[in-house]
Amino acid sequence: MLTGIGTFVDLKGGHVYPEKVLASEKKPIRIFMVDGRNNNRGTNDEGEYDPHRDWFLQNVRLMEALTKKGYDVNYSWGMGVHSHNMGGAMLPEMMRWLWRDQPVSLDPRDTVERSFRSKK
């Protein structure tokens, strides 16, 4: 699973995912999460803070729950805001990490495995 600036906040109840992860059976997945420290931090126009609406905090909470449950998690954060700039720049590394144990053909004649379009 790949998630960039995941919306695990109180928009239709997303802030309860950490508790749901801990209460449910572990699934056979690995997770790469990316977020920015300056993502939406849960402060409204009046300056009131709501931790359930803090994107960065809720991503950290979910990462901690996944890690506690024993999932294979790679959590990376930068100083970015609520945008996909960091995730876009990191996408090749994310995909290599997620698919790291998939077989790779060493056959120089295997044009299908190296192709963007299947030639079957």
Task: Give a written overview of the molecule.
- By secondary structure, the chain is α/β, with parallel strands linked by helices.
- The chain is built from 3 helices and 5 strands; from the N terminus they run βαβββαβα.
- The chain has a 3-stranded parallel sheet with strand order 1-2-5, with helices on both faces. Strands 3-4 form a two-stranded antiparallel ribbon.
- Helix 1 links the parallel strand 1 (2-4) and strand 2.
- The longest helix has 15 residues, at 55-69.
Structure summarized in a few sentences:
The protein is α/β, with parallel strands linked by helices and 120 residues long.
Mean pLDDT: 87
Summarize the amount of helix as a percent range.
Answer: 25-40%
Shape: globular
Summarize the helix and strand pattern as letters.
EHEEEHEH
Widest beta sheet: strand line-up:
1-2-5
Structural class, from secondary structure content? Answer: alpha/beta
Radius of gyration: 18 Å
The low-confidence runs, each spanning 5 or more residues with pLDDT under 50, are none
Q: What is the beta-strand fraction? A: 15-25%
Describe the secondary-structure layout.
Blueprint: E1 2-4, H1 17-23, E2 30-36, E3 41-43, E4 49-54, H2 55-69, E5 72-78, H3 85-98
Parallel strand pairs: 1-2, 2-5
Antiparallel strand pairs: 3-4
Helix pairs in contact: 1-2
Brief descriptors of the model:
globular, alpha/beta, 120 residues, 3 helices, two-stranded antiparallel ribbon
